[in-house]
Amino acid sequence: MRQATEAALAEALDLRPEQARAALKELTTWGLVGRHDASGFRAVVPEVGLDALVRRRQADVERARIAVGHAFETQRRTTRRAEVDSPVEVVTGPAVKLRIRQLVNSVRHEIRRLDRPPHLFGPVNRAEIEQLARGVTYRVVYARESLELPDYLEENVTPCVEAGEQARVAAELPVNMTILDKDLAWLTRPEDGQDGTLTIVYPGGLLEALVGLFEICWKTAVPLHLAAGTGPSIRAADRRLLVLLNAGVSDTRAAQSLGMSRRTFYRRLEQLMALTATTSRFQLAVAAAQRGWL
């Protein structure tokens, strides 16, 4: 359908008029759909629309990265030599993991995190699950490469999301960072054969810049839904397959993450298309969302 009205799209996708209107408004904002006349809409060539959208999102992240650098330089220039308390604390060696545990245990309200490999800890995040149970809010943006790690989605992300974590996915992230309430942030840098380096940032201009960086990454990331939904149920492995495809993970990486051969991966994909009576991945994504699978 190269050109269509709002009503025709609503009927074709089995959506309510207000749902179609909202979707068209958002797609127009993203530059993926254009108006042909007073009532008609036309899809922008995918390569053109998506390239423009990706460039805008990358520009947002780059501006935030530059702002962090400027804030750090300003903080460095304005910090007096006579000050005893430093806005930044650096921890190295075996003390890194212990210090992180101490900080995490002090959280009161919310933890915000940018998650990209390499990671300091193993795949199972028991501390987060315990804190979610006692009411701490978690907002996490995962880099796509985190989801491509074998078993990371199943053993780390899924248990946390099922416990209440709010998760999103970004194509890439500039840093591996955690923000604790509004009090401090830390950045980690693992190193081969070592415990890595932990940089703790206390209140000041740099912390404000890091909070701004997180919020930009959160705003531009894609929501990651793993809930069972209200439609007909599917296997957990199939839901994870859909989540990985929706996050933009390549077929090869998705198959590896799921522990499948490429042949099994494509067979499951064909079975899901048959189940939803769809003939393309885009149609499958729409059908999965309508059924509450995404």
UniProtKB/TrEMBL annotation:
The keyword DNA-binding applies. InterPro entries: HTH_Fis, TrmB-like, WH-like_DNA-bd_sf. One of its GO terms (molecular function) is sequence-specific DNA binding. It comes from the Bacteria. Keywords: DNA-binding. Residues 252-271 form the DNA binding HTH domain. PANTHER family: HTH-TYPE TRANSCRIPTIONAL REGULATOR TRMBL2. This is DNA-binding CsgD family transcriptional regulator.
